[in-house]
Design a protein that fits this description.
Elements (H helix, E strand, L loop, with lengths): L2 H5 L5 H62 L1 H7 L3 H19 L8 H28 L8 H21 L4 H24 L1
Helix pairs in contact: 2-4, 2-5, 2-6, 2-7, 5-6
């Protein structure tokens, strides 16, 4: 169905202008959500890499700390006799290694790489879902004259509230947002080049 078919003959110039403005605003929101979702996925990838690195470090230090703890327990008298100043340092390192292992393996710690990876990934999915809803709304109802303006305005306000609530959970980071813009621009440029080649 074309826009003119959807509008019908009875639409006034004022109504046409309002609907055109609404369509423009929805397109801006859709674009913003696309960039934000991409930024969340980029952040999620980075924090996932950091989480893996910390996991490997925790396995190493946990193994070393456990071995050191057993060794220091079994040979405590020999160590303290030969190296009296080294024994407390060795014991402290064993305890620190154990605590580091426990801390890294707890996913509920706020601002840990594992938690941030999960939060950004979930927000990316939510942004994509809302983006699809905005796109569907813009393509189906904006120019449908059987849908009254009050309904369109109400749905638009609800979408803005949902977007605000979603952004309040976790913000996309500045570096990731810039990387997302570059990634999208590069993808669009490649797409245009392929279309020109055809």
């Amino acid at each position: 169905m074309s826009r003119n078919d959807a509008m019908g003959p009875s639409i006034s110039p004022e109504e046409r202008k309002r609907r055109q403005n609404l369509e423009d605003e929805l397109n801006k929101i859709e674009n913003s959500l696309h960039v934000t979702a991409t930024a969340h996925y980029i952040s999620s990838e980075r924090y996932s890499g950091w989480d893996r690195t910390f996991q490997y470090l925790s396995y190493f230090t946990g193994t070393f700390g456990t071995t050191g703890g057993v060794f220091s327990t079994l040979s405590w008298k020999k160590i303290t006799a030969r190296y009296p100043s080294l024994a407390p340092i060795f014991a402290a390192f064993s305890v620190t290694s154990f605590l580091f292992t426990v801390a890294v393996n707890r996913n509920q710690i706020p601002n840990s790489p594992a938690t941030l990876h999960k939060l950004h990934f979930t927000s990316g999915i939510e942004c994509q879902y809302l983006q699809r809803r905005v796109s569907f709304f813009a393509k189906t109802d904006v120019w449908n004259t059987s849908v009254p303006w009050t309904t369109l305005a109400s749905r638009y306000e609800n979408l803005l509230k949902e977007k605000k609530e979603m952004n309040s959970k976790i913000q996309s980071e500045g570096w990731a947002y810039r990387a997302a813009l570059e990634k999208i621009e590069k993808r669009d440029k490649e797409k245009r080049q392929k279309e020109q080649e055809l």
